[in-house]
From TrEMBL:
Name this polypeptide is given: Alpha-L-fucosidase
Pfam families from the UniProt entry: Lipase_GDSL (PF00657)
Signal peptide bounds: 1-21
InterPro entries: GDSL, SGNH_hydro_sf, SGNH_plant_lipase-like
Lineage: Eukaryota, Viridiplantae, Streptophyta, Embryophyta, Tracheophyta
Entry GO MF terms: hydrolase activity, acting on ester bonds
């Protein structure tokens, strides 16, 4: 080999070594020992069923093969979060039977609101467990389990209890606010709803502060869904005026209110980051993820987003999923469709498992979050993550 060829070979080898030496380090991951969730029916894994009337079949049968306390045929987004973090599905705090709280607890209940409502669940389905009550329950849970853990005499006694030191390392998730809008649309005009939003988002911020003061540092907060895209919003609607719906069949002004709520929520979260040192708060744009699915149903293999899988909904006769009713003088059961995996809407309000899975895949990888980091890095502030990557 000539000197020229030898030199070129050495130069090429040196460049390969240089390229290898500057390869980016793998992104650091968080080790969350537990999840503590606060929310409504979008993330309730059994709380409202344990407290009132159990959610019946065919709810839960698609994945769990039996009713599971979830308003879905299978898993919710919170279940996919648990799977992503290699943690078991969350037991509902209010479920006293067969519960295991070693890796977290779920304080969400169907119908919950951020602000207390002066209604009973039997009137409009509003849960008595508003966010402030869920935080009180968490405070009691944290204190009581610490006491039980310290008093336990055997490893078996401790095996279903959270380790007290791990509360500060846990992930705290919030998925609530949709029912505050629902109450607003029922009781207020749009100006009044807008006026109420600052108080609603401030109450959520206070809940975050409460947990922060007890040592919580990692928060994953969902905004509210495209409210006007729920098929239930079109029940009993006739002769719909031009411009009332968008091109995908969603109620435009309701989605505008949801968008305004989400803007105020995001602004409040940005402010929270400055108020709470060391906090890592991820704002999750569930609205954008769900609307992306709704606007691309055919491409993604789903049917029309306004079609409902479970229940009987013909003209103005509505028999809810899992219920028995009467239509045209005959008994009719609100059964499930043959292919739930093709539907976005499970029961006209809640998403089917396949749609939840689609949305979960998009938010858990950071595609629809601020900062744009996946959930496995949600324990880091942007500054800490940058420092970790550089070192």
């Amino acid at each position: 080999m000539g000197l020229g060829a030898l030199f070129l070979g050495f130069f090429f080898l040196s460049c390969v070594v240089c390229v290898k030496s500057v390869e980016p380090k793998p992104s650091p991951t968080c080790t969350f020992p537990a999840i503590y969730n606060f929310g409504d029916s979008n993330s309730d894994t059994g709380g409202i069923s344990a407290s009132f009337v159990p959610i019946p079949a065919p709810y839960g049968e698609g994945f769990f093969h039996k009713p599971s306390g979830r308003d879905c045929d299978g898993r919710l987004i919170i279940d996919f979060i648990a799977e992503k973090l290699n943690l078991p599905y969350l037991s509902a705090y209010l479920n006293s039977l067969g519960t295991n709280y070693r890796h977290g607890a779920n304080f969400a209940t169907g119908g919950s609101t951020i602000r207390k409502q002066n209604e009973t669940i039997f009137q409009y389905g509003i849960s008595p467990f508003s966010l402030d009550i869920q935080i009180v329950q968490f405070n009691q849970f944290k204190a009581r389990t610490k006491q039980l853990y310290e008093e336990a005499k055997t490893p078996l006694e401790r095996s279903k209890l959270p380790v007290p030191e791990e509360f500060s390392k846990a992930l705290y998730t919030f998925d609530i606010g949709q029912n505050d809008l629902s109450v607003g649309f029922r009781k207020m005009n749009f100006d009044q709803i807008r006026e109420s939003m600052s108080d609603i988002v401030n109450q959520l911020a206070n809940a975050v502060k409460n947990i922060y003061e007890q040592g919580g540092r990692s928060f994953w907060i969902h905004n509210t869904s495209p409210f006007g895209c729920m098929p239930v919003q079109l029940f009993y609607k006739h002769n719909i005026a031009a411009g009332y719906l968008d091109q995908y069949g969603c109620v435009k002004d309701q989605n505008e209110m949801a968008t305004e709520f989400n803007k105020q929520l995001k602004d409040r979260i940005i402010k929270l980051r400055t108020e709470l040192p060391q906090v890592a708060i991820t704002y999750v744009d569930v609205y954008a993820a769900k609307y992306a699915l709704i606007s691309n149903t055919k491409t993604e293999g789903f049917v029309d987003p306004m079609k409902i899988c479970c229940g009987y909904h013909v003209n103005d006769t509505h028999i809810w999923c899992g219920n028995l009713g009467s239509a045209n003088g005959k008994d009719v059961f609100g059964a499930a469709c043959e292919n739930p995996s093709q539907y976005i809407s499970w029961d006209s309000v809640h998403y089917a498992e396949a749609a939840n899975h689609w949305v979960a895949n998009r938010i858990l990888n950071g595609s629809f979050t601020d900062p744009p980091t996946p959930i496995i890095q949600a324990c880091y502030t942007q500054r800490k993550l940058y420092h970790k990557l550089q070192n």
